[in-house]
Amino acid sequence: MTRSRLARHSTGTGCCDASSASRSATPRRSPLLPHVPTFEESDVRGYSADAWYGLLAPAGTPPAVLQALEKVAAQFAAAPGTAARLTSLGMDSRNTCGAAFGAMLQADTRGYTRLARDLNLKAE
């Protein structure tokens, strides 16, 4: 899994520079912006909006295939240059597989479902 960060803030290539970032919406401080506190640290409890990228397989995929996919994902995450390249793109690379990845997906789904319900959002 790869989580997105604010690359423009960390590099100064966007409309703002790193000194103008006020809070990070990620659950933990970004290594790219270590001086920027999270919302949680600023007493805004329960707020997190973190983007992620992951590899999914259909239900019923044979365990051997899932294990092979996890192995390839772990090799990619551990490959020389992967972390450096992702960091240059403003991303924080973490290898989260199996039950931990599933739990994260379920938590995100519950959170965004609750948010949509609380805001009375409707699909058109």
TrEMBL record:
Residues 1-36 are annotated as: Disordered. Gene3D superfamilies: Bordetella uptake gene, domain 1. Residues 18-33 have a biased composition (Low complexity). Pfam families: TctC. Belongs to the UPF0065 (bug) family. This is Tripartite tricarboxylate transporter substrate binding protein. It comes from Ramlibacter aurantiacus.
